[in-house]
Amino acid sequence: DIGSSPLLLATAACALANFALIYCGIAKGIERFCKIATPLLVFCALAVILRVATLGNPTGVEGQSFVDGLGFMWNPSRPLLDESGAVVGQTSVWTALANPEVWLAATSHIFFSASLCVGAIATYASYVKPNKDIALSSLTAVSANGFCEVALGGLMTIPAAVMFLGVANSESFASTFTMGFIVLPNVFGLMPGGEFFGFFFFSLLFIA
User: Fold this and answer.
1) pLDDT > 70: what percent of the chain?
2) Over the stretch 82-118, which tens digit does the pLDDT of each residue have?
3) I need a surface site. Which of 46, 113, 163, 173 has the fewest CB within 10 A?
């Protein structure tokens, strides 16, 4: 029954929420919502990061602790896997930094974030007061976006992926965004009020 499909109902609710915000305009709709939703989204992200950090090694498998997840996230070197997927070694940091694909991935992320934020500033420039600094606003938007994506999004998703799925499976994801929808429900299931935090977090993320 199409009318009772959870996915379609969630999509319809999300579409209606977005329509309502846009219909109210920039100041009374989008800006007002962002002033309320952004701090709440950051609070939820910090709560999830705290829970991920205190999980330790939920699966009990060697090499799948929170510290291993941090190493996988911040270390540009990558583990060497055998045919079975077991970790048998690791490339050096210098070898990884000499790999053009590492720099291409970093540059692509910077280009996407910068172009997205600067484009948003240019789009809404007609709503900005004459005494506002467009360059400073653009820099602020890029910095905030980078912090939320890398520091918050990465810290609550990538270590959790290593903890629950292992290094080999974490490598297979095309994006951290996709990874979050698979990994974070495991974290919400192991934290107090997880159903509330999960519903709240994903609802805000969908609307954002």
Assistant:
1) 94
2) 777 676 777 777 887 888 887 887 888 777 777 777 7
3) 46
Closest CA to 56 of 190, 174, 189: 190
pTM of the model: 0.71
Report the 10 Å Cβ neighbour count for 65.
19
